[in-house]
Amino acid sequence: MEIEHGSVATARHKSAYLACGPEDGPRIFFVHGWPELSLSWRHQLLTLGNLGFRAIAPDMRGYGNSSNYSKHEDFAVSEAVQDMVELHAALGEGPAVWVGHDWGAPVVWSVALHHPEIVHALANLCVPLGLEAGVDSIMAHVDRSIYPADTFPKGQWEYQFFYNENFAAAQAEMEAEPLKTVKLLFRKGDPAGAGQPASTAYTRINGGWFGPDGIPDMEIDLDVISPNEADVFAEALARNSFFGPSSWYVNHENNAAFSAKVNSVAITKPVLFFHGEYDYVCQTATGTLADPMRARCSDLTEIYVKSGHWMAQERPIEVNAGLTHWLISNVGYWPEAAHS
Which of 42, 59, 92, 216 is 20 to 30 A (C-alpha) from 188? Predict the structure, then answer.
C-alpha cells in the first residue's frame, strides 16, 4: 500500500496527515518534532501500513499543511495534545498506539497522562518523560563532568534558553536559508561525540546557532534524507516560517502548568523507549535523564540504537523491527489480516 494524504478540520484546528494501510486496521499515530514533518515517519508508515496497521502521521501545528498560528502560546503542548485528541476522534474508534519523537514525544507522553482512554500503548524515540514539564524540570540531569556549570549553566539545553532570550534572532537565522538549515540538521550520529559538549551548549555563548558566518552549506547526509526529501522539508519551512516551530521552545511555563495536573500520575500502559546512543542532547543512553521515566512507567521496554537524534530516518530498520516486535510480544496489538 502507498502513502496517502488526508486532513481533519475542526472548529479550532486543521491537521493534515499522511497515512498508509487499510482504513479498518489498528491505528498507530506517529507524532513528529522540530523542525520536521509527517514525512519524517515515511519508513514507519510504509512498513506498518503494509503489515495491515492504519499508520497515521500528522503535520503538527505550525508545520506542513496543518494550521499555523501567530502567538507563542498557540504552540504549547496542551494545544498539540488537543489536536491529537480531535484527530484520533475523527479517524476511528477505540484506543490507539502512539509513537513520538523530539517535541512529538512530550505530546505523546502528555496524551498518555491526560487522555489514557485513547492510548493502548505508547513508544517514544530519544526524548524521555520529563521535557513535557518544562526544561527547568530536567536541569538536575545535566552531566556536569561534560558541562561545567561556570561555562554551561544550562548544560546541553543552553539553546532552549536562547530561544526565550533572543527569539527573533533564533528564528531569523534558521529561516534565512531553509535548505541549508535542513542539510545541516539532518545528519547521522557520530560516536566520536561521546563525552564532548553538544553543539547546542554553545548557542548562548556564541549568540546564535551559527555564528557570524551564517549557515554553512553542507552536503546532504544521504544516510538520513534524500535530496528530494530535503527539498520538501525546506519548502514547508520556508512557506510556514520558523515562528511556529521555534515557538514550541518558549512555552515552558505553560507546559509546566499543564504537566502539574498529572505530575503524580503513573503510566501503566505498555511503553517502549528507544535510546539514541549517539544523541548527545537527549543523552539517555548514559546518565540519569531517563530515570524519571523508569520511575513512572510500570510496563517499560527499552531499546538502545546506535543512532543520532533523527533515529526514525537514520535507522529505520532497527526502529521498525523494535516497534513491531514489541507490538507482538508486549502489547498483543496486531492486525488480524497478518494471521490469515
Answer: 59
